[in-house]
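Sequence decides. Our protein:
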Amino acid sequence: MASDTIYTPRQQYVLLIVCLVGLTALILLGLGSYITAFLGAGVLYVVLRPWFAALVHRRNWSRQLVTAGLLVFAFVVIILPFTGLVLMLVNRIRLYAQDTSQIMHVLHLVEQKTGYQFTTENNVRDLVQQVVTWLSTRIPSLASGLLHFMVVIGLMLFTLYFMFVQEEAFLRGLRRYLPFRASTLQELGDALRNTVNANVLGQALIALVQALLTTFTLQIFGVQDALFWGTLAFFTAFIPVLGTPLVWGPAAVLKLAQGQVGQGVGILLVGVIVIINIDNLLRIVLAKRMGDIHPLITLAGVVLGVELFGILGLVMGPLLLSYLIVLVGVFERENRSRKRLQHKRSKPLPAPPKLPLLPE
């Protein structure tokens, strides 16, 4: 019986791909800001999976019980403290945006010492307001909506629960539906693990140590709101090259502008000798154990990731660049193999050896 369709098999195949791409795009567009919940679940899965594997696969503990414990741990130890830091940062910056007198006082002191006028109060207020607006769009917090925050956290934990409980089916689905060979999937998995280890575990540990040192240093040398500036140092520590000098550097300049030379020099000495060097030392120690990511990839990835995913882009941005590098390497290797195969096929077969002439 003849088919009633007007499409050829090839056209049907192309239209099927178009439908799949279109539906995927609509789903991603509909998820909108909630896509960060799935990305966050993937990051937490990589972080917590070694514990899950040790307790479930090696010691044969209850899968549901271990998963519930890991979810509670992630919420209490990771999500709540990080959310508190974000709220503290955003709320304090908004206070500075509403009252710029403290910032103008510092600028006037610097202007008096240097003899140069930097800006006017209106310009400072506009600049601070732009910073607050940018942070509000990049950093999710309770201020942007309690319902949205609860939905994102709930969706992330819900996704993480099924990633652990149905781990085998989840991994089998990735291997089946991702259009990559087994070796490529292994490389992508290694890139994901190295990036998460370097930019979540390793960098978070480095940022925490630097934030504590910055807080203690500013507290010892009499800087007001040392806890807030230490919290800000935790986030700036994720920025390669710049890092915590963005915090203790201006604090030292402020002390010098106020005529407190000893305190200003003390902050600079501790910052340069201790805080910066502890960063370099920890990076060397942790790079071998938690993944070694090139600083340029981290810097470009952070700029890209924060613009696309907000605060979660601190991890997702370097991961995207790492995946790009892996896929380029896979493409280069596959293309080289294909060229070698074509060269072997096009190479003419050797002529059969000539038989010696028989004597007549």
